[in-house]
Specification:
Blueprint (H helix, E strand, L loop, with lengths): L4 H26 L4 E5 L4 E5 L3 E6 L15 E5 L3 H12 L7 H4 L6 H25 L7 H27 L2 H4 E3 L4 E3 L1 E2 L1 H39 L37
Antiparallel strand pairs: 1-2, 1-7, 2-3, 3-4, 5-6
Helix pairs in contact: 1-4, 1-7, 4-5, 5-7
Length: about 260
């Protein structure tokens, strides 16, 4: 039996929310603006992401009509071995170089790796949920895979957001030391973009629960309707007009006598 319009509507809303959540989480993880700090003495804006960092030179006045000119970003990967060697050499000369303290925030820490693990795992599970959700109208048992995988994706995504929020508010990660002063990092827009994607998955999970409930309640009701007959239905023999048959007359049996001939 085909699914009803309500079931298809709930399933469509859930799939659309999963797609929106995937787009937002991918946009968040590819952006370096997870932590942003303006270091005035360096006249630069530093963006510290999960797997790469970017630096933008400070905006400057170019003309009266054109007030500010924005410089392009210069980025580097946290997992780049050559960049890691440069950071280590800079930190070794921290007494001579006052800007060495800022280089500490360009390292690839364990909490960065943990956040990336949970984000990528949640995106993979959301993709599995998306594929299984498309198959529900044809094969209804995939509704369980659809709901369970989406639930685990939501949990992993919440773990990623929680780990970052706690790590970003630690004193050693929140403040950047410059040559003459310290500057406070603020949480960038990339975190909020990923958080909105997580909220979309939470809404999608709620619709997924309703979808699974609708599909299986209809399946159960259709099965019970086949195997059980309502009490209001007439008995089976009363549904058909059977022409009464005349009883056949009793048959009489005649006993035959047989004689045996014997010789004298």
């Amino acid at each position: 039996m085909g699914s009803t319009a309500a079931q298809k509507g709930l399933l469509t809303i859930s799939i659309l929310l999963i797609l929106i959540g995937l787009g937002l989480t991918f946009a968040g993880v590819f952006s370096p603006a997870w932590q942003v700090v303006d270091i005035r003495e360096f006249r630069a804006e530093h963006q510290h992401g999960l797997w790469w960092d970017c630096t933008r030179a400070e905006k400057h006045v170019v003309a009266v009509a054109d007030f500010y000119s924005e410089e392009p970003l210069h980025c580097m990967y946290k997992f780049d071995r050559s960049a890691e060697i440069v950071i280590e050499n800079t930190l070794n000369n921290i007494d001579e170089d006052g800007a060495a303290g800022e280089s500490e925030h360009h390292r690839f820490w364990a909490w960065h790796k943990a956040i990336l693990f949970f984000i990528l795992s949640s995106q993979f599970l959301a993709f599995i949920s998306l594929c299984s959700g498309v198959c529900i109208p044809c094969f209804r048992p995939t509704a369980f895979i659809f709901t369970v995988s989406l639930f685990i994706a939501v949990i992993f995504s919440l773990f990623a957001d929680g780990i970052f929020f706690l790590a970003a508010n630690r004193v050693d990660n929140r403040f950047v030391q410059g040559m003459v002063g310290s500057y406070e990092q603020r949480i960038g827009y990339a975190f909020y973009v990923h958080l909105i994607g997580t909220l979309c998955w939470i809404l999608a999970f709620l619709f997924a629960l309703l979808t699974t409930y609708k599909f299986f309640t209809e399946r159960y009701s259709s099965r019970t309707g086949v195997h059980f007959r309502s009490d209001a239905d007439p008995p089976l023999l009363e549904k058909y007009n059977v022409v009464p048959s005349r009883p056949s007359p009793p048959m009489t049996y005649v006993r035959e006598h047989t004689y045996r001939v014997t010789s004298a």
